[in-house]
Amino acid sequence: MKRRWRIATEQEILDGKTTDVYFKRTEEVLRTDNQNPLVYAEITVSGMPEELDWGVIAGIDDALKLFEGKNISIYGLAEGSVFWPRVSSGVKVPVLSVVGHYADFAVLETPLLGFICHTSGMVSKTAYLRKASGDRTLLSFGARRTHPAITPQVEYAAYIGGCDGVSCILGAELLDIDASGTMPHALIIAFQDQVKAWNAFDKVLPEKIPRIALTDTYLDEVVESVMAAENIPNLAGVRLDTTGSRRGDFKRIIQEVRWELDVRGFKNVEIFVSGGLNSEKILQLQDAPVAGYGVGGAISNSSAIDFAMDIVAIHVGDEWLPAAKRGKFSGRKKIFRCPDCLQMDVLMKADAAPTCSCGSNMNLATLKLMDQGTRSIPSRTPDEIRESISEQTSLLELP
After folding, report:
1. 126 lies in a domain?
2. Do 209 and 331 sit in the same domain of this protein?
3. In terms of domains, do 251 and 282 share one?
4. Which of 58, 272, 333, 348 has the fewest beta carbons under 10 Å from its own?
5. Which of 315, 292, 298, 258 is CA-nearest to residue 102?
6. Secondary structure (DSSP) of 100-147
7. Is the domain of 32 the same as that of 107?
8. Boundary (domain end) residue, out of 300, 321, 355
9. What is the total count of domains within the chain?
């Protein structure tokens, strides 16, 4: 097959062509030697990005599609579940567990981890950004910071993690929402005149698109913001995307823009900011008169969560035997979670739900996600997952 770009097809992913070669060699050795043990393999965190305390597991729904029609059962947390890397006893939390004959799924370990490591990292980072932003608008502008083949996945992660909108056209289409965005500096430069560019934008585009003018191309942000307010009758807001070399004290610039708009009677014109924003910078702007944030690389370039999959139990005769390498915790396990503070516990067997340190009874969080290659629970929509993440993270604080 002649390729235009170095992009794997869906079938190549399903066939294990994107895997590490030693898994394919392992499968060959096992099958040649008639060794195909029934195993219990679990996915746990080897390392969290240093800025994350808790995380949000995501990519589960995509990962399950790898195993459809196979003699494999999968247990774990639902898509969009908040998790902690370890519990108080030091045991790692098995966010996902695979039960099956090892040679039947060995080559799928690499894409399985790929689906959840990257997506979980982006969703977790977005959830932190959402917490930092409070009730202000948060938009994903990170499409240009990642490979175009995975941009829709980036936008999915941004949306369920808490962004109110995404800029990528295809990403928005797959989420069944309208794409969000303002205007680029290129539009202003093409006209070589701010007012002409703003007026053309206002004249050409449908009324449902908010009139938010970019006001930092040629002149001082205050000057251009006032110009926009005076020339666009239905101006909804201005966006400040000032380059770092010209920014100075960004908070003071925003405050000055707000004052000069207000003093001229443009109190209804909101201020949106973008450009190199992350959770720390957003927190610094929370007492500034900002209506919303556009965030790019902080989401799309966020660090992946380092998950690893390990065999921790093997079925011999009629029982499961502990079988973990050094540094791992043997045996089949269940996750319990507190409904009030989301703290977790991991147990091998539990006749009764454990009690959380906060005093509440924990609930079983481990779900049977797939039974012999068939999904056990229905998929939820991105909006449903987004709402679930919002409800969970409302119980948590930023580290």
Report:
1. no
2. no
3. yes
4. 348
5. 315
6. EEGGGTGGGHHHHHHHHHHHHHHHHHHHHHHHHHTTSEEEE--GGGS-
7. yes
8. 300
9. 2
**CATH classification at residue 270:** 3.20.20.70
Q: Cα separations (Å) of 323 from 70, 213, 326, 330, 335?
A: 24, 61, 10, 6, 19
Residue 3, in any domain of the structure: no
Q: CA-to-CA distance for 283 and 280, rounded, in angstroms? A: 5
Contacts 24+ apart (CB under 8 A), 30-37: 30/102, 30/103, 30/106, 31/103, 35/103, 36/101, 36/102, 36/103, 36/104, 37/101, 37/102, 37/314, 37/315, 37/316
The separation between the first and the last C-alpha atoms of the chain, rounded to the nearest angstrom, is: 49
Q: Tens place of pLDDT for every residue, the chain, 399 residues?
A: 789 999 999 999 999 999 999 999 999 999 999 999 999 999 999 999 999 999 999 999 999 999 999 999 999 999 999 999 999 999 999 999 999 999 999 999 999 999 999 999 999 999 999 999 999 999 999 999 999 999 999 999 999 999 999 999 999 999 999 999 999 999 999 999 999 999 999 999 999 999 999 999 999 999 999 999 999 999 999 999 966 655 578 999 999 999 999 999 999 999 999 999 999 999 999 999 999 999 999 999 999 999 999 999 999 999 999 999 999 999 999 999 999 999 999 999 777 889 999 999 999 999 999 999 999 999 999 999 999 999 999 999 998
Q: What's 67's DSSP letter? A: G
Tokens, residue 345: 């516990």
Against a cut of 0.85, is the pTM above it? yes
Structural domain including 294 reads 132-300
What is the distance between the alpha carbons of residues 343 and 116, in angstroms, rounded to a whole number?
21
Q: Please report, as a single letter, which amino acid is at residue 61.
A: D
DSSP letter string over 241-270? ---HHHHSSHHHHHHHHHHHHHHTT-TT-E
Contacts 24+ apart (CB under 8 A), 192-199: 194/218, 194/219, 194/224, 194/227, 194/228, 195/227, 195/231, 198/228, 198/231, 198/232, 199/231, 199/232
Tell me how long the chain is. Answer: 399
Q: Is 309 helix (H, G, I), strand (E, B) or coil?
A: strand
Query: Cα separation of 161 and 124, whole Å?
Result: 7
